[in-house]
Amino acid sequence: MHILSESVEALVEQLTKLPTIGRKTAQRLAAYILKMPREEVVEIARALVAVKDRVVYCSVCFNVTDTDPCPICRSPRRDHSVICVVEEPNDVLALERTNEYRGVYHVLGGVISPLDGVGPEDLHIRELVARLNPEATPPGGDGQVAEAGASYPDGPRPAVQEVILAMNPNVEGDTTAYYISQLLKPFGIRVSRIARGLPIGGDLEYADEATLSRALEGRMTL
Amino acid sequence: MILHHLRLTAFRAHAETQVSFAPKVNLVYGPNGAGKTNILEAIHYLCLSKSFLASQDGYALRRGAPYFELEGRFEGDRRSDLRVRLAYVPEQGKRILVNGAPLERLSEIVSMLPIVVFSPADHAITAEGPEERRRFLDNILSQARPVYLDDLLKYRRALRQRNELLSQYRGRPLRPEQEAALQSWEAELVLLGTRVIRRRLRFIDTFTRYLEDAYARFERVAEQPTMTYNGIAPLDLDADEEAIAEAFRRQLARVARRERERGRTLVGPHRDDLVFRLNGMEVRRYASQGQHRTFGMALKLAQCFYLHDRLEERPMLLLDDVFGHFDDERRAGFLDLLQSEAVGQSIITDTRLRPFAGVIPFDRPEHRAIPVGRGADRAIVSVETAVEPE
Ligand SMILES: [Zn+2]
Questions:
Q1: Structural domain boundaries of chain A?
Q2: Is A67 in contact with A57 (CB distance < 8 Å)?
Q3: Separation of A75 CA from ligand 1 center, angstroms?
Q4: Claim to verify: residue B151 and residue B101 sit in the same structural domain
Q5: Which of residues 129-168 of B touch A (CB under 8 A)?
Q6: What residues make up the domain containing B210?
Q7: What is the DSSP secondary structure assignment for residue A159, as one 8-state letter?
Q8: CA of A58 to the centre of ligand 1 (A)
Q9: Distance between CA atoms of B195 and B152, rounded to whole angstroms?
């Protein structure tokens, strides 16, 4: 095939690096970008770079943020005695949209999955333990993590009383929840597991049969 | 359940084939290599999302075609029409649409359209290794209970994860957090494996009665068929989850050292077996060829009646070239059964019309004989019309 424009071809190639973007979609996007006003294209390009330059991970909860600590961790209106543990920053967004949860978060950055080469040490699990007990050295800790707790802006932090494990209800999510629940046992705090598979408060008809049967059998007590 | 119409596009020998079926007995007959078995395979794909031949999806793609597509129009005993489409594209995999809506997971189709396959390969269920018997067991249970298939798939996933970890840690001393990770995978494995085993035990308890009934239809000599679960430990058929989990954990502890050396999981439902016996004698070791055949047929017929009771839906029977092994008396008996109300629609493949023509009135609208031939491109050429018996 004859390449008409090397620049267009380069753009298509870059776009296909994004998830769910195949070659065809990339070509469509490239054609669209070609027709856009220059300023709008510059805005997109700036936003892309800004994401990398300005966005950091919150040193307390590891959510993405422009300021460290993040607004949720700094907020005096949130209940800092309850931590909801999630897999990814997107899960925080989903939970925030429900407007139901008033506690704070801890983002693991994934789940334990040997097949993907992810072990507990690759996730922010030690930092979670450090948030529960800043003085104690976490299991296998090397001192560096205890500092993670030092980022609270205003005085001493309230003691954590409850940890909610909100990993996805699949094999890896369940195993990660089990791993963390075992790790937190010595702290004697309340640890619960919520199933994200079943929509809370309705829409049961959209849940598949297996999920429903599972819910009927009753589980998720740790 | 009835399949009214089937379309195959770029599927094995078929460039584009359409077949209409009658509600009871259908005979697809013609020379070898005309693609008769492919028709049954296509139906199997639509009902269970995969082939009954142990082969990869790519092999089912007609040479040079970019994708294959299958479409079936089904009518359930309980539900209204179901139009199922399955498309396979290399690299992208399979996709199933039911009445135009895509399924999120392929496994959702299993149990919607129950089927039972009779084939010469059934011999392996009673004659060969445990894997064949597990496959048989998992097939029935998955069709009967979607939650079983869900647990089984999750168990397999947890097993792969744990095996990966065991192989990574193979022969090395573990740090505390690695030890804890291994324990977490063990807990998940036990949780899911226990559910799988519990449902298998309950199933065997119920299924034995179906097996006895089905066997008695084929064999006038009073022989008593039985089946037992040969698993992680001797367990009562009504054992509760805690008892099973405890036994599973004990076995894992017993082999823990060997698992660390070999780097994989050595006990669990993925290694369990079923033992079939006739009058107390193990079929695998002591049965004659005839007994193997009868036992295999009885298992499949029992599967049919079990699924019917469980799903309140008569499964479709696919009989792939199985009548050649029957004597006249058995063939007549079995064909009588297929015409009776006890079973639903059946689709038979055979090279010949003659042995069936005298027994099944193909001139009636509920039955149909469908001749197939080799066209210029080896695909089926004639499919639409019912033929008069010879
Ligand atoms: Zn934060």
A1: 6-54, 73-193
A2: no
A3: 10
A4: no
A5: 146-147, 149-150, 154, 157-158, 160-162, 164-165, 168
A6: 128-312
A7: P
A8: 5
A9: 9
